[in-house]
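SEVERITY: medium
COMPONENT: batch folding queue
REPORTER: lab tech (J.R.)

DESCRIPTION
The queue accepted two submissions in a row. Attaching both inputs and their returned C-alpha cells so the on-call engineer can compare them side by side.

ATTACHMENT 1
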Amino acid sequence: MIPIGVWQELKVDRIKSHGAYLTLQQGTENEDMDVLLPKKEVGARMKPGDTVMAFVYRDSDERKIATLRKPKIVVGEAAVLRVKDITRIGAFLDWGLEKDLLLPFAEQNGKVKKGQEVFVRLYVDKSDRLAASQKMQGFLQADSPYHVDDWVEGRVIGRHPKIGAFVAVDDKYEALLPEKNIYRALEPMTALRFRVQRVQEDGRLILSLRDRAEAMMDTDAEQIRNALKEANGFLPVDDNTDPDTIRNAFGMSKSAFKRALGRLLKSGEIRFARGGIRINNKEGGPRGRRQNYRKGRR
C-alpha cells in the first residue's frame, strides 16, 4: 500500500488518457498498490518505467491521488500555515496543494480566524486521512544539538502568563522563554533569534532574547544614553524604579538597567538628580518630548 503524507519515489507503471498510474512495484493492477497522477501533471516525456518524486494525499472524494507539487508540510513535520476558511467542521489551511488541509476544531488551541497564521503538525487520522493539529505535546523533540550560549532560531507558538512563551526551535525542538526573560512584545509565529540560557536535564531548552550580561552592558548603556539625549538630558528613572517600569521603558530587566547605570555613572556621563538621572555633558540635544515612565505602563 502506498503511504500518504510523505514525499516519496514512485515508479510510472502505465499511462492512460486521464493520467499516469504510479506504483511502488512495477506492473500491478491492484488499486491499493497504485495511485493516479492526474493528466495535467503528466509531462510530455513521461513514460512507463520512469521514476518520479511524488506526494500522495486524498482528493475531495477521499481517493488517493498523487501530485508532483511539493506541499508546505509532510507527516512528521511542523510548519506555519495560513487559515483560508472556517467551516462547521474546522479550519482549512493553505498547504500548497489544490485541496486545502483540515485543522479540526478538536485539534485547535483556541479559536482561529481566517487569514491567521498557525503552527501545526501533519498527521494521519484514524480514517487514514491527512489532517493538521496544533497540539504539540509529545511531538516537539527534546534532544536538540544545541548547548548553552548557542544562538538559535525559533518561533513563539504559545504563551502562559505565569510560565512564559513556548518556543519551537527549528520548528522541531521544544523550548521555553521564561516570563522573566520577556522584555518586549512577541509576535506569535514570527521567527526570532534566541540564546540558549540553559539546557534542562530532560533536554528542553531554556531561552533568552538577550546576550550574556557582560556582553549586553555596552548596548544597554547606549540605549539609556540615547533616551537621555532624546528627553533633553533628564529621565524620571533611577535604581529605585520598579522592574515593570524599566521593562516597559527599555526592554531590559532591572538588573541589566542597574549594571548599565553603573557603567554610565562610573564614566561620569550621568549623575543622579532629584526624581531621576541627568546627563552630565551638553549632548542632551534639542528639547524633545518628555518621556512618560509611569508605573505599570504597557
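ATTACHMENT 2
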Amino acid sequence: MEDLIRSIYWERASHPSTLGILLVEKGQFALTPYDVIQTVLLEIVERGEKEMDIVHFSDGRRQIGLMTIDKETIRDWLFFGKNKKIINWIYSGKILFERNDFFHHLIKELQDFPFNDRKIRIGLEFCKLISSYLDGKRLYQKKNHLDAFNHVIRALHHLARLSIIEKGMHPELTVWDQMKQIDPEIFKLYEEFIRSEEPLEKRLELLFLASEYMIRSKTELGAAHIADILKQKAYWSVQELFEHPELKIYSIDLLILLEYLLDREYIELIVDEKKGKGDVSLALYRLKKEVF
C-alpha cells in the first residue's frame, strides 16, 4: 500500500504545476458518503484542465483516490464554505509534498481569515439563513410542520455558521461542538428545539419567535457586504447587482435578501420613469444612508 501511494505522489509531484499533495486517511474522518475509499491523495495544482478530477487506484486490497483540484477552486471551497470537509482535510492531512510551502501558507491564510473574505462569507450565510427561515415559516403557516422542521434546522445551522465566522473562525463539520464554546445561547436554542418533548407545532412557534429576534440582531452584520457594494453608486438595477462579481455567489437567494432588506427598510426602491419600456418603469435599489 505504501509503495502504491509513493509511486502515485512521486509521479504527480514531478509535474511543475503541482503545488502540493496531502494524504488523508479514512481513520481520521469520513472521506466519502460510503467510505469505499480508504485513502485520499489531495493534489492542488496551479491550473487544471478541469476544476476537479478524481481517479481511483487499487492494489487488490485497498482503494486510493487521487483528487486533483486547481488552486482557485480549493480557495473557493475553503473561504466560501462550498465544501466543508475540505477544511478538516487541510488542517489534519499529512503533507507529502508542497512547493514553496504551499500548504503552510494556505493554512496561515485560513487561520488569519482575511476581513473581506469573512464579510462575504457572513453575507452568504445570512442570505441562506433568511431563505431557510422564510421557507420554514411559510410551511408552518400552511400546517406543513415536518417540512417546516427541516427548513428551521437548516436556518439554525446557517445562524450557527454565521456566529462562528463572526468570531473569525471557519465552521467545521461538527459545527455544534464549536457552538458550545462560541455561542451558548444559540446552542441552547438548537438543543432545546430538537430535544424538547413539546408537540412539534408548539416547538416551531417558540423557535420562530426566538429566531426573529436573533435574525434582527444580526441584520446589520449580515447585510454589511451588500451594503458596501450598494455604497459604490447611487442606484442599482437588480440585473447590475446579479452581475456584480462579489454578488454572483449569492445566486437566486440575492432576491430574497433584497426583499428582506426592503421590508426592514434598510434599502429602498426607486422608480426610474426615464428607463424601462412603454408604461413600465425600471425599479432601482439604493441604500438608506441613515441606516448604514
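NOTES FROM REPORTER
The two ends are 59 Å apart (CA to CA).
No errors were logged for either attachment.
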